[in-house]
Amino acid sequence: MEEAHLLPAADVLRRFSVTAEGGLSPEQVTGARERYGPNGESAGHAGAAGAACAAVSVLRPPPNPRRGTAAAERSSPLPAIGPRGRAGRQEARAPETSADALGAPGGAARDPCGPSGLPTSTRVPVHSCRPSPTPIDAQRCIPAPPQSAGVVQAFLFLHPQADVAGGVAEPRPEEEVRVSRVLYPRSLWELPTEEGKSLWELVLEQFEDLLVRILLLAALVSFVLAWFEEDEETTTAFVEPLVIMLILVANAIVGVWQERNAESAIEALKEYEPEMGKVIRSDRKGVQRIRARDIVPGDIVEVAVGDKVPADLRLIEIKSTTLRVDQSILTGESVSVTKHTDAIPDPRAVNQDKKNMLFSGTNIASGKAMGVAVATGLHTELGKIRSQMAAMAPERTPLQQKLDEFGQQLSRAISVICMAVWVINIGHFADPAHGGSWLRGAVYYFKIAVALAVAAIPEGLPAVITTCLALGTRRMARKNAIVRSLPSVETLGCTSVICSDKTGTLTTNQMSVCRMFVVAEAEAGTCSLHEFTISGTTYAPEGEVRLGEWPVCCGQFDGLVELATICSLCNDSALDYNEAKGVYEKVGEATETALTCLVEKMNVFDTDLQALSRVERAGACNAVIKQLMRKEFTLEFSRDRKSMSVYCTPTHPGLAAQGSKMFVKGAPESVIERCSSVRVGSRTVSLNTTSREQILAKIRDWGSGLDTLRCLALATRDVPPRKEDMQLDDCSKFVQYETDLTFVGCVGMLDPPRPEVAACISRCRQAGIRVVMITGDNKGTAVAICRRLGIFKDTEDVAGKAYTGREFDDLSPEQQRHACRTARCFARVEPAHKSRIVENLQSFNEITAMTGDGVNDAPALKKAEIGIAMGSGTAVAKSAAEMVLSDDNFASIVAAVEEGRAIYSNMKQFIRYLISSNVGEVVCIFVTAILGLPEALIPVQLLWVNLVTDGLPATALGFNPPDLDIMEKRPRNPREALISGWLFFRYLAVGVYVGLATVAAATWWFLYDAEGPQVTFYQLRNFLKCSEDNPLFAGTECEVFESRFPTTMALSVLVTIEMCNALNSVSENQSLLRMPPWLNPWLLAAVAMSMALHFLILLVPPLPLIFQVTPLSGRQWVVVLQISLPVVLLDEALKYLSRKHVDEEKGQK
Asked: What positions does the domain P-type ATPase A occupy (predicted)?
């Protein structure tokens, strides 16, 4: 290694205390000393300090750094390694009270050597060296998990033969790799591959639904009975089980296809696992590129602009003026973050505040640095998120739970009714119709019981629900909400809390300058300002600059011309027009892009923009300014002076006399402190204390309250030093060059709220949905945006309603639950906070929709009932979510909630429609069995009605328009039964009418039809006793009781009533006069199609034979209509009672 890299041991990262589980136990330390000597020496390597588990003590500098005795151990330090690995002589000291960046208790009383045995006030060198040739006792010396030890400890684990006394021995890279593999197996440093579900597992999952299992059982029983049927009935007997099996197979195919499309979840994290990394090891001079998965804790890693960080790194040296990192995927911060090497005194700092850490998977935006790998693989922050996601078990949606409950209730009811029918008819088992055989009679009535079960089960319900949800996803997709999980469509309808990210969802995530000022007058101790407002909330270079209420021409204000010049030149970003997307996008930092966009809006030189294309328009005004002034070099931003500047020389002959200038932008307090004058128009006026305070007061006002703008001061040094006199390689001199400045103006920018969001939040409030903002930004900014959007009122006290992650942690568990119940804003949060917030909300039975776009959001997205990822977000977030917003817009969430409510309402309608038909079928079979009447409906007819005739209108009901007041109701309780007491009564009332009507139609043919036998009701009830020698049936042919006409009459009445029911189901409670059927044209088409199919089985051979039906006469069809149409009046009466019931409930509330 060519140079020394000194690391403050006080800044060493220790996530956990050093114990047998997380570091070195006392036994391990003793064993290491026994084996390697008190100073870590091994045979043949005197002075080689630190076998893999050696405990190193560092105290004061020794008189002789080479001695290796026990005394030396007690008194010698771990000296700095020089350029060639030799002992160095310098020692730097860190503050003794500094704490670890990751959790060492700051200021707490502790062992002066710290948990790793290293004194907390000593800087020690970090370097790489070869491992000891002596084999490592891996069984006896168990390495700590990578994040559990300090930097130095992790380094010594990797490099056990750091020759701190006599230099570095000859490198053996192959042994170093071997030791790395022994100490850190692949499971520690590589994200494991997630095994997907096999095809058979996906298929079996489709049969976990209770309704599907009941259908499967009915099919098996029907198949067994068909196997023992009489020869002439064998063909039709097999139709029923085959049709049921076809239904189940089709349903499974749809389910597997949906699962296959959605299955990508945790593996998307691989996108953020870097492929390569740059490390410094002793086996090669300089930097070497290796696979990122080969990096182990203790490696010295180098990163530069454009790199993806390969592991969690503790920074030890920044080789550029600044280091900026885009860690938005992990923390959600909207702008890149400046990093440093100083210790973080806060032992509980959140990831956003760990400025001396680089996290795996984040990107270097600018600069170059070196750091020590302290965590790899699953132990990185990225890996922890992956572990959390893998540990979460998917929960069933409210709809799935209700359908399970419904299936249990249905199975119990079916069992009771079927048993009752069989038991009631025990007395008929030996009737002559069964040949006097009790067993044949028992089997006959068992078949009737099975037919009853088939009638009671809504075979088409699973398929119709899947179809309805799929149709709902298509409608949502048109509203920019792409649903990945079908059941979650309905869950949206009962969402009671929306936890929304701020950046990009509630705001545009396009930093925009909305205010600026220049000095109008600065005379006689007073200072007046020209304050301008700028319209536009995106990167599109379109907007007006206004002074008060009036638009202005910026070129008429000398101060604005200079301000635009500074914004353009003191800037490394650009606007770019994305022709594929049709939008303007940033190239570079968001803050600087906002300034670039401002210059385009100002157009201070009145450039003709009309003839330009959108691509040319992106940088037209900036290009004019850059033609007038040439940027010579940049003094980069630094934390100490909080500013950056550019040195520019004029290129235009008319400006040459003005000479070179330095343009400065930075934090207002820092820049204004170095200003000695202020620009007033084209004049330069001395800046007195009063004017300075007035300017700072205005900036403070902009930076607080409702605005909370991010302010930048802009200044000029009119007579800068000559370039030749400036020491550009010494960044400590930069502040000297940025003095004697002239204040030009100030700009205030923000990530603006989306214009449509405030109205959407108002709609949510009206619908009883609470909106909670959860963001990684600071609390002041978050509260300000909440006020702008209406989450908080302008003057509302936010105490107890807005928390930072730290404040939330300080609460007791019960207080945290209360905070989640009442708060509407959480700022400066980490992924763990989001997950806890969701858990607490779920403890109150809230249905939570959680939005997110970064890797850090994935666990909370997966835990929430509805995870909503942004279309521009990471693949990890999208794979963990149930829904993806293609436009990243909060308004799309509200539209999706409305659609979810409409879908649930429509589902209730078609469930009511299907169940009323099934109740009617059960009543029909039950009544005929109790009264001893001939079968009105046979199983194959029931299947046809349940699947085909009813299936089409039921599916079309999914297209019903939403009720007029759907977003004025509170979210429904997820525990609310799918079929409530009143709803059950409605099902029962309509179903009983359906059943009695079908029986009545069949009976009418036997008793009154001119073409029928016109038998008595007594004869009809005792038809099983019909025989030639029974005087009761003298003159009556017994075959007449097997005629197809009565079953055809019953089937036609059933189908006609169901079509009337479908037309009644456009709205749950609204009358047909208010919401007529033609509001849903798909329903009219489905009704027409169902009737056409009914006529098809009546008229087209061989269907009449299969379904045991026959064509009806005109007189018979008139009777069918007379019996069927009254159901419309019955349902209208029930709707009226329902509306009255709902109005009474509203009045009570």
From this structure: 273-389
